[in-house]
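FAQ
Q: What does a multi-component entry look like?
A: The components come first, one per line:
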Amino acid sequence: MSPPDRIRNFSIVAHIDHGKSTLADRILELTHTVSEREMREQLLDSMELERERGITIKAQAVRVTWRGHQLNLIDTPGHVDFTYEVSRALQACEGAVLVVDAAQGIEAQTLANAYLAIESGLAIVPVVNKIDLPQADPQGTAAEVAELLGEDADGVVRISAKTGEGVEAVLDAVVERVPAPGGDPAAPPRALVFDSSYDQYRGVVAFVRMVDGRFSRRQRLRAMAAGTRFEAEELGFFSPDRRPTETLEAGEVGYVVTGLKDVSRLRVGDTLTTHESPAAEPLPGYKDVKPTVFAGLFPTDSDEYPALRDALERLKLNDASLFYEPETSQALGFGFRCGFLGLLHMEIVRERLEREFDLDLLVTAPNVAYRVLTKAGGELEVHNPSDMPREVELVEEPYIRATTIVPKDYVGSVMELNNDRRGRFHHLEYLSEERVLLVFDLPLAEIVYDYYDQLKSRTKGYASFDYDIVGFEPGDLVRVDILLAGDPVDALSLIVHRDGAAARGRLLVERLREEIPRQLFDVPVQAAIGSRIIARETIKARRKDVLAKCYGGDITRKRKLLERQKKGKKRMKQVGSVEVPQEAFLAVLNLDGERK
Amino acid sequence: MSAVRHLYVHVPFCAHRCGYCDFVTLVGRRAGHGAYVDALLVELELERGALADRLETVYLGGGTPTFADPDELERLLTALPRAEEVTVEANPETVTPDLAARLRGAGVTRVSLGAQSFQPALLAVLERRAGPDAVRRAFYHLRDANFDNISLDLLYGIPGQSPADLERDLAEAIALGPEHLSCYELEAKPGTRFTHAHGEELARQAEAMEGYFERVVETLVSAGYRWYETASFSRSARQARHNLAYWHGRDYLGLGIGAVSTVGSLRWRNRPGLGAYQRALAGGERPPREEERLEAGVKRRERLMLGLRLDEPVALADVSGAVDGEALARMERLGLAERRGAALVLTRRGRFLGGGVTAELLAESPAKSTIS
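Then the predicted structure of the entire assembly, as tokens:
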């Protein structure tokens, strides 16, 4: 147990690949928290997927000792989709180490994270990393960072997390510049939940920052926003393994084993207090995070529906921000409509379902949440294009403020892309002679559809991108339905801006004509806005489908042939009277990915 | 169990295996024909108990029955039970005036002649030995021997066959005036030499030749033939009665290697090996065979599948439980099938799509949704 003035709580924030995890590893080594031999690359990123993608999804906290001080290093997720989680993790700290790659300079997420940290009132320790790289520009980068923070470039610590050079100076700077935690040890206990995870045997484990008072083992606790009650079965900290303690004191960071079986009952941002001397007010800033991107997930094999349900339940244990509810599609059968914090979150969930749970999925085109005012004057929020009323008074869609940083030669390309995507120019600023920061307001829906790939290819991968949701605005949006032989294919409905409707409709209709095998009758394939047809193709009927001969010798074989054919039809998805093979849906739903 | 009235005899010998053929055939064993006929006749005696006193039809198929040693063929025919219709399959190059007369003399009433095409180039693709003249010659020899029931086999969809080629083949066939025609689309059967050589070409031309079936039907129907079965056309009363027995779901006995019999709820197929067949029968034993038990439901499903090949309605009572009611309603809406009283029949367009429509109509087994 350390007195509060010997405690420092801090995070490391950085743009992807600027070296956050490597720095964390070096800190663990340098403080002998982990021996070199035990050192696993990027120890803090415990999930396979995270290591592969070079991003951290779940925040964790590790306690280290440095020159007589207790340092709590709180890891933060590194992506825009998890902004709220990042903000809670930062709320648990008094300081942040801002890491910038000396070869890359400031990137979009450097800014986003720096602003978040500044808004949270944190002391910032700016660090320029990778000074060992031949193409590094420590001087220039330090100047950029100093400019951003309004500080002197001399205060920027220059390091190589890879070689370990300068890492001691980072720790010294944390001790010197980051204030000791405030809070009142005598006040009724309050702890901020900045993350949680699920342990198969012990239930939900909450990561907390004790702000006031203290918790003791076996104490009865309460989550103030959710109202959830539980007993603190165990308290402790990570170093890096779980180290149980009898108490958590004001200013400390640690964990609480709750025994809860449902992670959604203890959300990030909630405040824990004790049953016996409850705090009057929760800590500020709790917010119920709402999903922004939605898609239908369907098993390609309908028998796997229960497996998909179980898998989602298990993911949800560790990911309270994942939202799902059963969805029945006439075309795709039973599945789930899922809500995600963003596109990356969606991709991660999808990959985990396919990889860790071995499921084959059909994923519908993602869409955003729309606010709809109906003709009758009612208001509703639409998460699924097929729920969009055909007659509406007004539709509002979410808008984002998008920040893009690019070398100046690509400014034109980004402008053009954003203009194509109904973007509104906000402002432009030179970060240096070479690099430009561009700010646009864009409908979120335009980002959801093939934006990242476009941005990447038009800027040869040099652009960095970040966004915040800024609100809802009305748009001239229409629902486009795809009809097969007159019957709408619910899974293919989409909501698009009126100007782009005909092109999208044509693309889908042409692709379906190519992919759907000829049937026993002509099948018109249409795209329609309400009753108005905007694109049409016809799949011509087969003219001949017979078994040439069938005599006494091959009745059994021919019967089995027809029975197999009938069974094969069962695997097809039935839309009205039309049989659509799974592959056709896959091809059409993958259109976004291919359209480059 | 009622007695069987239809007998099939498999005569596997051929001068040459055509590239597209996947029947049980034996090439170049002329010396062995006598032993095979001996074996057939022993098998006949073993199974005779199942046969009715008076048979309706006997059918000698192959192979090329007429390639067999004429004396042996005659011995076989003479030993087989009499029947109202006795058909022998023949390849044109094997039909001589002598053979025609012998067949007639041995009680054969009908000859099915494997013409396939009248175009030398297409016959060459099929590896057929007879040229167009041989087909015509064989036909006239049969007529001279007083055969008044001759069937011609034609193939369409041969690699390289143009629409004009097809028209010419049909015109040539019609000009001969056969009582019956069987017209098959050439199939690339897996594993055949032909598929190996021409499979890709067949797949490529499939779309271009899609209309050939319609053309065949239209041409033959306007020439006065009745399109009474998917691939069969006849002058008024000259349907292939033996084949009709299959399509009507009657019992039949098959003799010879690879031959299939269906009697009551049992179907069996003799194994295709000649040696084992002859050894067993030489010892007075039944030849090795595979058996299949046919449940009542399976029989009704087959009844549906076979019955829908015909232009006459299938009584719903005969196929109860075998028809997917929902699919039937859908096929009726699409104008592909229709109910006529208590019977079911495919429409003209439905018959062109008979395979697909039948697959739709077949109820899942065991039947979930059925009509009574």
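Q: Is there any commentary attached?
A: Sometimes. For this entry: The longest strand of chain A covers residues 392-407.
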